[in-house]
Amino acid sequence: MTRTSWDPPVRAGSSHDVPAVDHDGDVTEPRAVHTWLTDMDGVLVREEDPIPGAKEFIAALREQGVPFLVLTNNSIFTPRDLRVRLLRSSGIDVPEQSIWTSALATAQFLDDQRPGGSAYVVGETGLTAAVHDIGYVMTDQDPDYVVLGETRTYSFEAITRAIRLINDGARFIATNPDPSGPSTQGMLPATGSVAALISTATGRQPYFIGKPNPLMMRSALNRIDAHSETTVMIGDRMDTDIISGLEAGMRTVLVATGATERHQVQDFPYRPTKVVDSIADVVPYVAQHCLPEDT
After folding, report:
1. 18 domain residue, yes or no
2. Which residues contact residue 276 at a Cβ distance below 8 angstroms, ignoring those fewer than 6 apart?
3. Which CATH number do you get for residue 184?
4. How big is the chain by its Cα radius of gyration, in Å?
5. Are 48 and 118 contained in the same domain?
6. Among the options 17, 22, 24, 41, which is catalytic?
7. What is the pLDDT of residues 254-263, one digit of tens each?
8. Cα 172 from chain centroid?
């Protein structure tokens, strides 16, 4: 078998070399794990506090030379901003190029759909920089799109302008459907809530790019030239991380350190490949290049 540039070396004596046994007792080859995707909030950090095992998980990936991406629906910050925030507040060292945000996925979608277009953007630097970098003109004069993202300073004037532009024919895009988000002061309204306000006023629903849209997962896979069959998605929410990973064809791991608790998994019509207490339980699988399934 020809190895690609992102195939990790197979280490002698690792569990990657050990054949699996199916329910009939037949020996089968385990599916390798060549790449990892992981959510950030609830998996690696809780607000700005590191979750035990997070630093070790990222360090193991980098030590093994395994391609990975840290995903977030938050479109406020650029990857550079997030890298510095993670390192300073949590001590987690994630390279800038290994962070994939809903803002980047949204910009990629716009560039694929209508290269060289224009947009009226409601959001912070993470989104405006991503849209600028694909060569879009940001304008409030007859734009191709209204693009809504996360911000801590939503203005009535900007929302009103977005509503009028959508009524005039601009296409409505939003970075993610999250209705709320955490802060040190408590819960804050997020993109999904403001999108609902605009939809109520216009009668137009946005196209959401971020999780649970598997489009974000596909764009992340393409970013690191990975294949869904040999990639695992780690998340803390069944209704975003796990469902989008499943729909993108990946195996999934739910960590019980965030939004979805263990006892809630049975309430969903789908299940993750594996449920663990925290990201610390995933660290050994990085060197093994495989993921044992729950039985």
Report:
1. no
2. 253, 254, 255, 256, 282
3. 3.40.50.1000
4. 20
5. no
6. 41
7. 999 998 999 9
8. 21
